[in-house]
Amino acid sequence: MTERIKLTMTVTWEYEPNKEDYDKGMTIEQMAEFDATQPEVPSIIRGEGTYSDVKWEITGREYKND
Fold it and tell me: Cβ neighbours of residue 35 under 8 Å, at least 6 residues apart?
């Protein structure tokens, strides 16, 4: 198995939503809920943001009990 690095972090991204990108009549709370539950939506996947609580681990290691 190949060793891999796994990073887990918190990203904080504050933005003003473009209301044209959402269904008509959505409240800002509904827009926030939509963005929080639709990670595949390109508008919220960006390299910007404040990264914190970064943790790492090595996965894929094989341990042998000799």
Answer: 17, 41, 43, 44
DSSP, collapsed to helix, strand or coil, labels residue 30 as helix
Over residues 18-39, mean pLDDT: 90
Domain residue spans of the chain: 4-59
Category of 11 on φ-ψ map: left (φ > 0), alpha (ψ -120 to 50) or beta: beta
- Do 56 and 9 touch, CB atoms closer than 8 A? no
Structure tokens at 37: 């539950």
Residue where the block lists tokens 């390109």: 42
Alpha helix locations (H) across 3-60?
A: 28-37
Taking residues 34-52, report their average pLDDT.
69
Rounded Cα distance between 51 and 12, Å, is 6
Q: What pTM was estimated for this model as a whole?
A: 0.58
